[in-house]
Amino acid sequence: MARVLSGIQPTGDIHLGNYLGAVRGWVDDQHAQDAYFCVVDLHALTLPRDPAELRAKTLETTLLLVAAGLDPDVCTLFVQSHVHEHPELSWILESVASMGELRRMTQFKEKAKEGEESARVALFTYPVLQAADILLYDAEQVPVGEDQRQHLELCRDIALRFNHRYGETFVVPDAVLPKVGARIMDLQRPAAKMSKSADSPQGTVLVLDEPAVIERKFKRAVTDAGTDVTFDPVGQPGVANLLQILGAATGRQPAEVAVGYDQYGPLKADTAEAVIELLRPVRERYADLAADPEAVRSTLRQGAQKAEAIAAVTLARARAAIGLLSRS
Ligand code: TRP
What we know:
The protein is mainly α. It contains 13 helices and five strands. Helix 1 (16-29) links the parallel strand 1 (3-8) and strand 2. The longest helix has 30 residues, at 293-322. The protein is globular and about 70 Å long. The two termini are 34 Å apart. Bound molecules: tryptophan (TRP). Tryptophan (TRP) binds next to strand 1 and helix 7. Tryptophan binds next to strand 1 and helix 7.
């Protein structure tokens, strides 16, 4: 069984794009893999957050992952800041990473909108902490979206450089990009990826949206000029997105889905229906879990213990390799 690790930020409500592109794949994989999933609250500190909200979202994100089907008896689910080895290894890796390679990260450039001067140092070193998340668990595979490819390359470079300089210490991981539903677009602006930092709330379908809300969002989805229903992401991005979503929700290819339609109305209605049915059990389980958050918190304590047992061994290896004197 390959060791797999992925992370998700507790910064907003999980949407359909996260669900189809990432979370559902994790749920499928957990039985076939030795899987670790981490709610990366330390990464959330790289941008301004309200403390009470961060705390609440960390628990909500965990509840949602369990509601979506991650089974804490099968995989290891934990909160990043519960395992102090993450920031500790990150510091060691910062001594291996260079300013130049971090400056090349496109996500830093995008997120440091107001300029480097006022950007948090943690936003700059964000990818190094992410490398620590991965390397601590000897993860071989990291299922991530396309937008994380560059961070994964950096993680590999850091691991290889460390191993070269200080001797074999880390497993060098591979990124695994999702097969289906990797690019679910905003329903209002089909040129942009569906996103939780949405200034387009009507274009983002949340996993916990009520059925009536989901129906309305699909009804108002932007379609394209013309009346044909064909799968043409360049010429008809709005329609293509609906076909992609309906396909992903029903286990078919978008082009194959298109064959059944010659009007936009029924396509929107059927897509809404399929998404409502897909998300219904998740929303119901979430309500049950939210009624007893203590149960999930206890799961998180167990997850952190399991994670820490592995992380501590890797950290000790890295500390020894780089020349830190052990306490004992
Ligand atoms: N940076 C990732 C994202 O924004 C989240 C993340 C943090 C992550 N640590 C990770 C993903 C480790 C995979 C592995 O999506």
